[in-house]
Amino acid sequence: MALTELAGRRVLLGVTGGIAAYKAAELVRRLAEAGAQVRVAMTENAARFVTPLTFQALSGHPVRLSLWDESAEAAMGHIELARWAEDILIAPASADFLARLAHGLADDLLTTLCLASAAPVYVAPAMNQQMWANAATQANLALLRSRGIGVFGPAAGSQACGEVGAGRLLEADELVQALASTRRPRSLSGRQVLVSAGPTYEDIDPVRFLGNRSSGRMGFAIAAAAAEAGAAVTLVAGPVHLATPAGVHRIDVRSARQMHAAVMAAAAVADVFVAAAAVGDFRPQEVARHKIKKRDDGGMTLELTQNPDILAEVAALPRRPLLVGFAAETEHLETHARAKLERKRLDLIAANLVGGGLGFEVDDNSLTLIAADGTIHLPTAPKRELAHQLVDIIAQRLERREATAGVASA
Ligand code: PMT
């Protein structure tokens, strides 16, 4: 994983007591892969779920458990460890730990380290959904946030206790991304970014639709990267099975016309519109009220009508945002993409080859960014890496556009 932001970074991982503690083992591995130096401190309760030896083997360093461990203190005292850390990440952070941290307690090693360190502290809560929803937990979180403590997650879904709701620890990968993002410049701070993602479904009858293979991954990665860069992000999502990226306002739609309405409602205030959705160009002229039955002659003709071109309509707004389109092509990538750039009057188009295992539904992609002033190739990488590169380029273009507008109006 090419996460240069964490290369050489000294990360103190705090593990507290909860069933999600086992996921912290994978987190140590992922942090190390991203180049971080990792030391682990556990609460006594965390050691009931996973043994310190597991973390010692994965981090390559002894694990700290107690303030009163004489040999550990002789090797690296807790104050030294607090000074050593450049980031403190508590994952999982239990409700009890959050309460103790919020109230400034220092009755064990981990809370003491948090109080004694000048490093930024991030917590990744994990608990039963009722505990998460409890007013006491939320008040503690609000207090911690107000003091600048970063909160990663939690995710929602089925829980180890059998309940369903918010309170799941983010996956190791997501936590590494979240920590890396704190190191990135907030190049879109104060900007409004609108992103469309996923497919559209055009109903034929109550059980059938016309759709496409878009999974939404590319668009969701762009929304996440823009939010991490400080933008206020609205994500208009077609029917996909993806979690909403942290801090992103999501609007779910199904058809191209619904996507059109949602995008047009948000576009007037957007500084940037990234159209990563694979919008159906056509829809059935009529949607049958009942399931269409097989005919004896074996054939069937479907009358189609054209959907609105969302990008082209946003381009025609009097105050148009910076427009970034996508071109999904199976051949002549640059030629077709350049034609779309010009026809839709875009500032930038991200062209990708699709089909045969490329572009759609997969985690990796490669993009060719084409603008009137040049072309940049972004080689194959995970979509979220490409999304960060694209967001950097968008931020530079926004600044350049405003500088040019400023010169023109002066
Ligand atoms: O979702 P994933 O599985 O991660 O896959 C990512 C992707 C391949 C879908 C994505 O990278 C991509 O290429 N998205 C655009 C797909 C597409 O519809 O391309 P197009 O060449 O048909 O459309 C050109 C542009 O016009 C696109 O920005 C599209 O959003 C926009 N459009 C198209 C039709 C329409 N009616 N309105 C539009 O705004």
Question: What does this 3D model show about the protein?
Answer:
The protein is 36% helix and 24% strand. It is built from 15 helices and 19 strands. With 410 residues, it is of the alpha/beta class. The mean pLDDT is 94. Helix 6 crosses helix 9 (135-146). It folds into 2 domains: 4-181, 3-Layer(aba) Sandwich (Rossmann fold); 192-286 and 298-409, CoaB-like (Rossmann fold, 3-Layer(aba) Sandwich). The chain has helices at residues 21-33, 46-49, 52-59, 70-75, 78-84, 95-102, 109-116, 129-133, 135-146, 172-181, 217-228, 256-267, 310-315, 333-343, 383-409, and strands spanning 10-15, 37-42, 87-93, 121-125, 150-151, 155-158, 164-168, 192-197, 202-205, 208-210, 232-237, 248-252, 272-275, 282-284, 304-306, 322-329, 348-353, 364-371, 374-382. It is globular and about 80 Å long. Ligand PMT is lined by residues 196, 198, 214-218, 256, 275-279, 281, 307, 309-311, 325-328, 340, 352, 354, 359-361. The site of ligand PMT has 28 residues, from helix 11, helix 13 and strand 16.
